[in-house]
Design a protein that fits this description.
The protein has 188 residues and is an alpha+beta fold. The chain has one domain. A five-stranded antiparallel sheet has the order 1-7-8-9-10. Strands 2-3-4-5-6 form a five-stranded antiparallel sheet, with helices on one face. Strand 5 and strand 6 form a beta hairpin.
Length: 188
């Protein structure tokens, strides 16, 4: 319950700082690790594309989790994740944000007890998916600001029992998203 309050606080702070959730059509742009009462973590989930699953299978955190939580007979790795389509560059590509599903014990591989979790961002280049960002936070937001035509991304992490919020902004550098700026503020 306390973590839900912290995540709600993070999203509220994002709204107060002018980073309100912006939708292109019906596109979700703000994602939270934990469920918030009355809000879906992913409002329009899509099936995790096979190309994305293939990349996730090679991810260090996923491989480590698979070692301790092998998939059962007939179980797909896709059951561990929830995905949402996003447009990072333009309307013609279908990029993907992936979050842990939080439905099985394996979800704890991708989330700390304080609600900080992993996010994966995949860009589709017209032929295949490429992992362009893997990052931790309580929430992730696709911003309207752009660098070289690609939308910037920001994560937020709540610490010290909700007293400190750290935002990290990422910009696309031509191949992947790189950390651009980190700001920490104390909440009163």
């Amino acid at each position: 319950m306390f973590m839900r309050l912290l995540v709600s606080s993070f999203l509220l702070v994002c709204l107060l700082h002018g980073h309100a959730q912006v939708r292109r059509g019906d596109e979700q742009s703000t994602f939270a690790v934990e469920e918030i009462p009355g809000e879906a973590r992913v409002t329009h989930p899509i099936a995790v594309p096979d190309g994305v699953l293939a990349i996730l299978r090679t991810d260090g955190a996923v491989k480590s989790c698979l070692k301790d939580n092998p998939l059962g007979r007939g179980q797909s790795l896709s059951s561990w994740f929830v995905a949402s389509q996003i447009h990072l560059y333009g309307v013609n590509e279908a990029d993907v944000i992936v979050l842990p599903s939080l439905h099985g014990e394996e979800s704890m591989c991708f989330q700390s007890p304080t609600g900080i979790g992993l996010f994966w961002v995949f860009r589709h280049d017209g032929q295949q998916y490429k992992l362009v960002l893997q990052t931790w936070g309580n929430g992730l937001q696709i911003l309207t600001s752009k660098t070289d035509g690609y939308r910037n991304i920001q994560t937020g992490t709540v610490g010290e029992a909700g007293r400190v919020i750290t935002n990290v902004r990422f910009r696309f550098d031509g191949t992947h998203y790189a950390k651009d700026r980190e700001t920490t503020s104390e909440q009163r």
